[in-house]
Amino acid sequence: MKTRATSFLLAALAVVSLVLPVLAAEPEEIPQENTVETAEIEEVHTAIRLDGEDVQDVEYEFRDGVCYVTVSSFVSLMDAEAMVEEENGVVIVNASTVTEIIPMDQEAADVETVEMTEDAETAEETVDAEEDDAELAANVVTADLDLTAAAGADYFVANGRYLYAADGLVQVNGRVAVPVRQLARVFNLTVGYDAEREQVLLDRQEDAEPYLAAGVSVYDSDTLYWLSRIIYAESGNQPLEGKIAVGNVVMNRVKNPRFPDNIYDVLFQKNQFTPAASGSIYRDPNWESVVAAMLVMDGAEVLPNALFFNGVGARSYASRTRTYVATIGDHAFYK
Question: Do both 190 and 88 map to the same domain?
Answer without folding.
Answer: yes
